[in-house]
Amino acid sequence: MPSLGKIARRTFLIGSAAIAGGVAFGVYAAQRPFANPNLDDLPKGSASFNPWVIIDSDKITLIATHADKGQGIFSAQAAMIAEELDVDLDQVEISFGVPDKAYYNRAAIDVMAGFPMYDNSPTAETVRGFLGGIVKLALPLMATGGSSAVPDSYDKLRQAGATARETLKLAASQQSGVPVEQLKTERGAVILPDGSEIAYTALAGAAAGITPMADIPLRDPKQWRILGKPMERADMVEKSTGTLTYGIDFRTEGMLHATIKVNPRQGGAMVGFDASEAEGMPGVKKIVEITGGVAVIADNTWRAIQAAEAIEFDWGEAPYPAEQDAHWELLSNTFTDAHLNAEARVEGDVEAAEGEEVVGEYRSPYIAHAPLEPLNATILVGENRVDIWTGHQIQQYVEQFVAEITGVDQENVHLHNMFIGGSFGHRLEFDFVKQAAEIANQMRGTPIQMTYSREEDFAHDFPRHITMGRGVAKVKDGKVTALDIQIAGQSVMRSQMGRMGMSLPGPDAQLHEGAWDAPNFNLPNLRVRSYRTEALAPVSSWRAVGAGPNVFIYETLLDEAIHKAGADPLAERIRLMGHEPSVKVLEAVGEMCSWTGPNIGEGRGRGVAYGFSFGVPVATIVEVTATDAGIKLDKAWVAADVGKVIDPVNLENLAQGGTIFGLGHAINCEITYADGMAEQTNYHDHEGMRLYQCPEIAFRPLEIGTKIRGFGEPPIPPSAPALGNAIFAATGQRIREMPFYKHIDFV
Amino acid sequence: MKFTVNGTEHEVSVEDDMPLLWVLRDELNITGPKYGCGIAQCGACTVMLDGQAVRSCQVTADELEGTEVTTIEGLGTPDALHAVQAAWVEHQVAQCGYCQSGQIMQAAALLDMNDDPSDEDIDQVMSGNLCRCGTYPRIRAAVKTAAKTLQEA
């Protein structure tokens, strides 16, 4: 029988599947902490109290291991440690640290536990705890994703700061003879009763000999100095002066530049190629084959790209339908029992419910991630050592895959994680790392920086999955009485995890996420069924994953039903909602815009939508004007319950940015396939939102929920339906397909 | 050809059609200007060429002789921020930050020409610079703050 570790590494255990499997493990093993990786190479006289704090005679280093792709978690992690350590961020260095299982993500599994995130019942909590134990024992994965970095970090990093502080106090007590109870700490120093100070850096040597303290009570948030208040992000000055080194900016002695071309029919073979012209072009050092394509190595990125363009290829067929229409047709034939992913929610009896029917079909297209920093990685394969400089959200897998390609032991493969110029899910993928490793492995001893051209980035993205929704709503006596929703799409998780060599047994919850867990407890009849297919283009997690398309389907159908019922879109949503934090966010957003109804005259309209994703209820209202030139977005209001606010300024930035991301793609973006290739090649035909289109956006965070939540993704889902519902209010035109520009003009 | 970048003269010998962006990044190791699209759609590579904001991916090496180029590194430094950079920090504009070198250079060029831009002016001039993270509301506010600072200077 395979060990638990083997099962869990190759198979993702989710919810009841894990319980039914009867997997058991010792409580002790699950609670025992991992070894502190900083101790491996720690110089004498330095102290590391836990994996997150290192102090030597010169400086204090805080380890912030979550990947920062713009969400600000680098700074937020340091702030959580600093709050309890009693240092300020201008006194410390912050490092991404080294990939190690000690930094495994404790919170990422919660979203997959098979219970709605608002369900805090003992059963749900037991399963989450159980899965957390499995994750820790079998798959202690350092990962940033699923809006989990803040919930993962919140307790453990404050605890890391507190234990380091108390250990330093103990060292100071031993050194000074003053009892610990009489010592205080402030700005990186222990303060003695006479007012004299001993800097933490002066205590490092003594503290290194003390077993770190444990189980220190955390401070009441009312005492916070840093957290909960507006902060200056630690990366802000560098990002405003061009001095931050992204992966693409990394330079090292002797480095060469490379680019690749692989079959734009994703997963198709390379039948042949002719590089004779490219070989003689300026600066070209070498042209090598890699899996599914070719790499050009040159002394300059532009020269490499020019030469790659000069190669003639014979590409094989795509392993999916070549034309976009066939993708939709295939999806439309997926609403059958044979394709059933899950009957995810059944309340009452939608078929027996009485009332007038509202019927709709909804579409959400493929969309590219297209982060502004094109994917890139720099790799040096040396004698029994490999160094990798890139930004990635799943660090240990980067090391594992590069070890497999180069044949170097994984313990000698070192990822230096870098700041990331946007991801939106693309930096969860591994192709670009594997390709760079294949190139560097053929250029041993020479550091190779592989950069995608923007065109390669589009051609080789794994976009957001396409989704089709079919809904029937019923209304009676001015109320919505039933929603029956069917969602057909691709299994993102199967596609993505398949590329990681993992399988996913059972249903993929992302296919109904955001719909099955809508807390409309006062809606007597609700059914959500999802259907899946894998026969389409390869796809990947795109910011908010399943909740993006699914909330669009749910909230558009609901809006149509409310209109049919003659009810107020905000009041009826509040009436249907049985979940207090969700009621509060809806009330808050109504108050913020002084809601008086969807029609506010003079061609103006307001649309409201609600989305629940990653544990965060979000309500969004969008206001538009129908002008002669098209729809103009005037304003948006967003309210969300995040449980606890870490940095109100950064949170507002994420709320605005997430709303813009949702709106911009809903209006403007799709990837379509022709001849097996993505037709969109660069930002001119897939641009998201530009500044002139951007509405004013007001945000109000609430702190009602008992758990702290991450906010990178939750603003996305309600933004698109709020806009669609606003357009209906302003024009009477109901749009059931993204991108909206195909159906109506925008200013 | 010889040209000046941030006050320092450089001589490079490259193909006539090599874009300034790649001369800066891969020949001179000046990495503040970013590669985003290569076709003047994103503005991440924006620099000033003889005082004018240009997309450095569209300026070729044969146009550089005798010119003066200013990149984000030459606008201000962490210890001596330009008014636009200071406003960017004050408003905590950046998320991933990858577009911000170009945004800031475009904003600085706008304020050089027009020290009191209207909302429409800002929308028009800044819309060529794409921000995938959606920091536009903060960019608008920061441009206004920088304008005020520069007016009072």
Automatic annotation (TrEMBL), chain A:
Coiled coil: none
Keyword Endoplasmic reticulum: no
Lineage, top ranks: Bacteria, Pseudomonadati, Pseudomonadota, Alphaproteobacteria, Rhodobacterales
EC class (word): oxidoreductase
Keywords assigned: Oxidoreductase
GO MF assignments: isoquinoline 1-oxidoreductase activity
InterPro entries: Ald_Oxase/Xan_DH_a/b, Ald_Oxase/Xan_DH_a/b_sf, AldOxase/xan_DH_MoCoBD1, AldOxase/xan_DH_MoCoBD2, AldOxase/xan_DH_Mopterin-bd_sf, N-heterocyclic_Hydroxylase, OxRdtase_Mopterin-bd_su_IorB, TAT_signal
EC number: 1.3.99.16
Gene responsible for this protein: iorB_3
Claim: Oxidoreductase is one of the keywords in the record: yes
Name of the protein in question: Isoquinoline 1-oxidoreductase subunit beta
Domain Aldehyde oxidase/xanthine dehydrogenase a/b hammerhead: 241-319
Pfam families, per the entry: MoCoBD_1 (PF02738), MoCoBD_2 (PF20256)
From TrEMBL, chain B:
Record has Protein biosynthesis as a keyword: no
GO molecular function annotations of the record: 2 iron, 2 sulfur cluster binding; isoquinoline 1-oxidoreductase activity; metal ion binding
Highest taxon listed in the record's lineage: Bacteria
The protein's Enzyme Commission number: 1.3.99.16
Keywords: 2Fe-2S, Iron, Iron-sulfur, Metal-binding, Oxidoreductase
CDD domains xrefs: fer2 (cd00207)
Keyword Iron carried by entry: yes
Enzyme class: oxidoreductase
One Pfam family, short name: Fer2_2
Residue ranges annotated for the 2Fe-2S ferredoxin-type domain, each copy included: 1-75
InterPro entries the record matches: 2Fe-2S-bd, 2Fe-2S-bd_dom_sf, 2Fe-2S_ferredoxin-like_sf, 2Fe-2S_ferredoxin-type, 2Fe2S_fd_BS, Beta-grasp_dom_sf, Diverse_Oxidoreductases
Protein name per UniProt: Isoquinoline 1-oxidoreductase subunit alpha
Annotated source species: Pelagimonas phthalicica
Lineage, opening ranks: Bacteria, Pseudomonadati, Pseudomonadota, Alphaproteobacteria, Rhodobacterales
